[in-house]
Amino acid sequence: MSAKVELKSRQDLGVTKKTLKQTTRDHISGYLYISPFFILFGIFGVFPIIFTAYISFHKWNILGAKEFIGFKNYQMLFTDPIFWKALGNTFSIWIISTLPQLFMALIFAFILNQAFLKGREFFRLAVFLPNITSVVAVAIIFGAIFGQQYGILNYLLSFFGIDPINWRASVIGTHVSIAAMVMWRWTGYNTIIYLAALQSIPKDLYEAATIDGASKAQQFFHITIPMIRPMIIFTVILSTIGGMQIFAEPLMFSGAGGGAIKQGLTMTLYLYEEAFTRNSFGYASAIAWVLFLIIVGFSLINLFITKRIKSAE
Amino acid sequence: MKKFRFHKMLLILMSALLLFAAVGCSGSKESSGGTSKDGKVKLTIWLWPGMGIEDQIKEYAAENNIEVDIQLAEFGDVHNNLTTALAAGSGAPDISAVEVKGIDKMKGSPEHFHNLLDLGADEVAGDYLDWKWRQSMTPDGKHLLGLPTDIGPQAMAYRIDLFEEAGLPTDREEVAKLIQTWDDYIKVGEQIKAKTGKAMIDSPGGLYSVVEGQGSEKYFDKDGNVIVKDNPQIKKAYELANTLIEKGLASPFNQWSPEWGTGMTNGDFATLLAPAWMMGFMMSNAPDAAGKWDITLLPEGSGNWGGSFMTIPKESKHPEEAYKLIKWLTSPEQQLVTFQKNGNFPSTPGIFDSEDIQNFTSEYFNNAPVGKIYAEAATQVKEIIEGPESIQIEGIIGDAITRVRDGQANKEDSWKTAMEQLDRELSR
Amino acid sequence: MRDVGVKWYNPSRIITYLLLILMTFLSVFPFYWMFVIGSNDTSAINKFPPAMIPGTNFFVNAQKVFDNIEFFRAIMNSIVVSSLITLSVLFFCSIAGFAFAKLEFKFRNGLFVFLLATMMVPSQLGLIPSYMIISKLGWINSLNAVIVPAMVNAFGVFWMRQYISATIPNELMDAGRMDGASNFRLYWNVVLPPIRPALATLGLITFMNVWNDFLWPLVVLKDRSVHTIQIALRTLNGAYYQDFAMILAGTFMATLPILVVFLIFSKQFIAGLTEGSVK
């Protein structure tokens, strides 16, 4: 049974009518094919979500009894200065790490996709290596790089006459450090995703453009970006969702408490801390739900922006 | 259409296959209260690596005709997993090691553990240091969660070269005489700073956590009320930590950071208030500083950092057998064995006079008789009531001190912020 | 195909290569340093200026790793888990993505949005309720607990759907239907081949995420015999102090299998390249 599909002239010009049988089959297939996800989610996903919502209206220290307190957790949340701090931190780190990262990933993917490139395999591996490196190792190494007195970075900066920066103690220092860790780890990941997307662009488009005298930069902006627009939307949404939930890097850099002035505390870290260090599971559940709403809102905003900026023909 | 049905079958078959492959791959293992095939009692035990007691447990099992399943997990994970299992009501082991930081929280819900007093723990109470015994007991004294294993009594490690450079005595007895109060400590610190430019202590928080425990009460009174704001000992501890910062006597390093290790090697600070187990850490992280450090006693008493217990979660179906095991394991004789093998400092004062401990010296620390010193320190630790939120409170105040050290707040504002945070968190 | 008339020493080329080399250095340096520490002893971390040259201790540290944990068994467990999950994810996500992208059925868009929303829920709190479920199913300490919940995920479906949307024109589908192909046939013969780069990518990402995951396996896999490599590596952490050299030697060794997997998947990538994209 060959896979060849022939475009014959019997294809109607205009809308292909679907038969009733086809529609029914589509429905059956459709639901059948997506059912594994929803079944699995139904078993393993729904209960935790409902449970978390339920607990958010209680006071519960995991080991003791649950005490119903209505919306009190949410009220406390809105007057909690640490929560707002965590919110600010999360957005700040997101802006510093996500935007440059996506842009760099796109450029790297574009470069790696070029025909002339020698050693493509090697560079691809190199760009992806950070993502494979163990998180534990990353913590130890970046800790040494960003040390205040003995850190490698400050050592290098001293050659430019810059005083040692206390990365860990200051707000901006911490945000930059954590953003650096995040960028280091995830740029390669996004590059690989964009690379896959770039494979889908027909080569002759580029050839035609080159023959027409378009520069690489022009090709980048006028062919590449519009053609992979769905992928860009994908990575923007994913980075939004992921970026709002940054957890491992701040945990390792600033410690579980997020630092003495909570400079490294992101919302997910705060959530985790409340649940597992302080055992205020009810409060943590409230944080989780507020975080969820924030992510939804912010994703919609980003989706709106991304959809407007680029549109392919 | 035949093809259609065939492929649908393929789809379903594949899913089923995957499921069966996964299921068939490995069986499930019971977590607690099992009986092995030949009818022997089977105990599941949770430990973290480095405790040094595995061989002894296996020895006991062989001699007493029971089976033991020792499951190792990372230190923090043992506690998290235990909490999860207890919360879910299943999956907890028969015996679990719990460290002093974790026992605080567990004490808040003693119903999840077998009360060792009911199993006869009263009879061995006298074998252990009072203050250690208290740590795994609920404030009302009615419920005992765990039997003590090792402890972390603190002494003062000091840099011989820095003391010498500052023109101070370097013999450990003379240093102890020189520094008999914390005010003495600060005076010596100023001298060292003037003559060598180095800090006196690695972290002001380190001093705080020792001094806070040297009074008669810490964060809770006997009725379980939080007494942080009015407790004079806490105030004193906070003031002392701040004095160190104001006079430039504290290094900027955070404990456990790689820089701290470097500072240890280079002698960036003159003293470290070190618990017994930290000796091993110093030896492996700052080997080049061997012979440059010595150890003597702390002023105004001692402190404790760390130490663990063996507990029996309520889910266990063999509490009596489990109790017999841990009673044997934590008995003075066995703690001596653990000390000999692994260096864990015992919590049973009865053996402090034994030769092993009295004659235990450390080449790294200039041949100091560390066994003797730490034994002495252990007896000086005060018995203090701890509550479920002790660790939290200590963390909040520790943060306050760090803020002042890093220049982000002055000491009054920092304290105020800390107290507000405390109120908020306790109400949750 | 070479760009006609462009010299190799063209400035933009040189800049490109420089950029790539810089990127490579930044990416690889931490990994290299991991090896340096792993081949020295722990105090190397604290040296200043920092140690930059590998030492001779690697095998000593590696031996310590082997003494402390069941390294190879854990690697096997990780391989089994990662492979099974990857295969499952590739199949189930691609077919679901196909459905969302190319089939029309009622509530399709709503269901897709719901799928997206599931990704936005922070997962850390799910640990305890998920544990309760797994416990009820009797899967504690069984690899099932790790494999089954991961067999299909929202990310994969989203990714496949986007890719299929972008690369498979509707005309192809219609033509296939004209020829009487069933939906499954369409999926298998028409859709799958051109999306090979996407599959390779998803496969790689999935394998790697599962390999590196530890939060969840930590909670459900307690017995040493079922530990995955990340959990096993965690037990190298002492309670009060870490032997960094040993830990980093262990993490270094644990990364090597993934490098191999990456290289294998990369070949798939290139194969997709030469087969040409949809014209």
Written account of the structure:
The complex is a heterotrimer of chains A (313), B (428) and C (279). Chain A is mainly α and 313 residues long. Helix content of chain A is 69%, strand content 1%. In chain A, a hairpin with a 7-residue loop joins strand 1 and strand 2. In chain A, helix 6 (135-145) crosses helix 12 and helix 8 runs antiparallel to helix 12. Chain A is flat and about 70 Å long. Chain B is of the alpha/beta class and 428 residues long. Chain B is built from 18 helices and nine strands. In chain B, strands 1, 2, 3, 4, 5, 6, 7, 8 and 9 form a nine-stranded mixed beta sheet that branches. In chain B, helix 17 packs antiparallel against helix 18 (411-426). The longest helix of chain B has 24 residues, at 2-25. Chain C has 13 helices and no strands. Chain C has helices at 11-38, 58-68, 71-102, 108-119, 127-137, 144-147, 154-167, 170-178, 183-191, 196-212, 215-220, 229-234, 244-275. Chains in contact: A-B, A-C, B-C. The interface between A and C is large, with 106 and 115 residues.
Helix and strand composition category of chain B: alpha/beta
Class based on secondary structure composition and strand pairing of chain A = mainly alpha
Helix-strand topology string of chain B: HEEHEHEHHEHHHEHHHEHEEHHHHHH
The helix content of chain A, as a percent range, equals: 55-70%
N- and C-termini, Cα separation of chain A: 35 Å
What general outline of chain A do the C-alpha atoms trace?
Answer: flat
Mean pLDDT of chain A: 83
Oligomer: heterotrimer
Largest sheet of chain A: 2 strands, antiparallel
Number of strands of chain A: 2
Number of helices of chain A: 14
Globular, elongated, flat, extended or rod-shaped: what is the shape of chain B? globular
